[in-house]
Amino acid sequence: MLLCCAGVPVLAGEPGDPELAIYLDFEGDPSEVALDSMKKEVAAIMEPVGLNLQWRALADGGCSESFRELAVMRFTGRCRMDAPPDFEPQAAALGMAKMSDGEILPFGEVACNRVRGVISTQMGSGDGRKRDSLMGRALGRVVAHELYHILTRTRKHAAEGVAKPYYTARDMLGNTLVFQPKQVNLLKKNRPSLLPASERPAAVRLID
Ligand SMILES: [Zn+2]
Questions:
Q1: What is the distance in A from the centroid of ligand 1 to the CA of 149?
Q2: What average pLDDT does the chain have?
Q3: Which homologous superfamily is 16-189 in?
Q4: Per-residue b/e over 119-128, b at no fewer than 16 CB within 10 Å?
Q5: Is 59 in a helix, a strand, or coil?
């Protein structure tokens, strides 16, 4: 399947133009509640950075739109709490940003089954919507972490906050998890609108 993503930079943007489009690609049907909660969590975490986030489904294409910068997030496994448990290695990564020749690419991946495995023991049984909403919060934090790598093009981590290298169930389910000021500043410095046009990708084509 050949998919086309609009990655053509807006050379003379208007204030308020979309700055970062996030294309979502799910292996299985996500819970709508989790999806909504995830978007809200990413927006809350990114709020101090000042990015205008535009969410799109990769399956919808989007060739007619232009964005200053885009990222593609692929979600493996089942992103819903009513799915049966899956056995995944405990130590495996919850998410990753893809690399090529030492460069971080604008492609992230989130392992829903692993996220589910870590948080499920701390959730207990209960209201399905609440559980999916909490899963969305956890997914949002993993997405924000990978966006941090993608936007700053660094593999480095922070000691605390969203950019730290390991998440516990508490990190993913607690009331708030935010970037530390240093990471916020780094993200601000790397906002797409501040990059010269020559440093923006001219186009991104995905072959799946
Ligand atoms: Zn990381």
A1: 7
A2: 83
A3: Collagenase (Catalytic Domain) (3.40.390.10)
A4: bbeebeeeee
A5: helix
Give the distance (Å) from ligand 1 centre to CA of residue 148. 8
Ligand 1: distance of its center to the CA of 120 in Å?
A: 22
Output the CA 146–ligand 1 centroid distance in Å. 6
For residue 154, how far is its CA from the centre of ligand 1 (angstroms)?
9
CA of residue 17 to ligand 1 center, whole Å:
28
Q: Domain limits of the chain?
A: 16-189
pLDDT tens digits for range 48-101: 998 889 999 988 865 567 777 889 999 999 999 988 877 666 668 999 999 998
| pLDDT score recorded for residue 200 | 53
Cα 68 to Cα 120: distance, rounded to the nearest angstrom: 37
Burial of residue 17, with CB atoms counted within 10 A of its CB: 0-12 exposed, 13-18 middle, 19 or more buried: middle
* The pLDDT of residue 2: 36
d(CA 157, CA 72) in angstroms, rounded, equals 21
DSSP class of residue 58 equals G
